[in-house]
Write a structure and sequence with these properties.
With 287 residues, the protein is mainly α. The chain has helices at residues 4-25, 33-53, 59-68, 75-94, 103-120, 151-174, 184-193, 213-232, 236-251, 256-266, 273-280, and strands at 129-131, 145-147. InterPro entries: DHMBA_Reg_Transcription_Factor.
Length: 287
């Protein structure tokens, strides 16, 4: 595992590198289709890097988004815009700017409402298929799991889920007498339901061979999400199931990072979500 200080410096360096690119070429990326595609990817990656570095989204990125808005649309672009606002809110809270003010609660509630609306109306081509196996399976939580049509769809859905959990935590911390209206348990269950699709033992692939690169990368996208679900859940069965999945990824998939994450859970470490992201790399969002 990389030392925390080295990881923080690497994240900040990546964010600053993206900012430098925007300042140098920002106005040029909207002049061609290829440039706009590259600009959208850069905007997404830089937003995630800013979140991991606990810094606000730079003005250069806001400018780029405004320039791309007439050309780039869709649920993913809208989600990344909401994510940028969440990153800004968390950066402010990190600096204790809102310590005694109600503003973060109101902003968190508004952002949660925007995410809920976004989740209610996914593109038809991204809608999931819910599967209810006849027999119980140790790597399926509850009685069902979800199959998404593509990687982008599942990453976007999980991005919405985990951001709603983080916003719920902000609301609870800064307004304990006015709890969030989010269904924390239900959201955590949705994260759990997205996992079995990518586990070879459930997908009826070779369940004993080490994971190939694609399943390993797919499982990496789930680790920070599972950490958050484990942290917020009061369901003993859910927490045990998450630990079992990580142990499977570690033992069969030969994913040491899964064992590192499980060890953090067992130690009851209160890791920041973005720190968990930085442990596995910025694979949580389909950038």
């Amino acid at each position: 595992m990389v030392a925390g200080g080295s990881r923080d410096r690497a994240i900040c360096s990546k964010a600053q590198g993206g900012i430098s690119l925007l300042k140098s070429y920002g106005s040029q990326v909207v002049t061609s289709d290829f440039g706009r595609q590259l600009g959208a990817r850069l905007a997404s990656a830089l937003t995630v890097s800013c979140g991991a570095a606990a810094i606000a989204v730079p003005e250069a990125l806001r400018t780029l988004r405004r320039q791309l808005d007439p050309y780039v649309n869709g649920v993913k672009w809208r989600f990344m815009g909401i994510l940028a606002s969440i990153v800004d809110l968390q950066a402010d809270l990190h600096k204790a700017r809102y310590r005694c003010e109600p503003s973060p609660v109101k902003q968190a509630e508004q952002l949660d409402s925007e995410l809920a609306r976004l989740h209610r109306d996914p593109p038809l081509s991204w809608r999931l298929q819910r599967v209810s196996p006849v027999r119980d399976h140790p790597l399926i939580f509850s009685s069902y799991y979800d199959i998404f049509p593509n990687q982008c769809a599942v990453q976007l859905a999980n991005g919405i889920y985990v951001m709603r959990l983080l916003l719920d935590r902000i609301i609870t911390m800064y307004s304990p007498s006015n709890p969030s209206e989010s269904d924390t348990c239900g959201i955590a269950c949705q994260i759990c339901a997205s996992v079995p699709q990518f586990l070879p033992l459930v997908a009826q692939q070779d369940a004993t061979a080490p994971f190939s690169p694609v399943p390993r990368l797919q499982c990496c996208t789930l680790l920070a999400l599972l950490y958050v679900a484990h942290y917020v859940s009061e369901d003993v069965a859910m927490r045990a199931w998450i630990e079992r999945c990580l142990q499977y990824m570690s033992d069969v998939g030969e994913m040491k990072i899964a064992q590192d994450m499980r060890d953090a859970m067992a130690s009851n470490l209160d890791l920041d979500y973005w720190f968990a992201v930085s442990m596995v790399g910025s694979y949580v969002f389909a950038t």
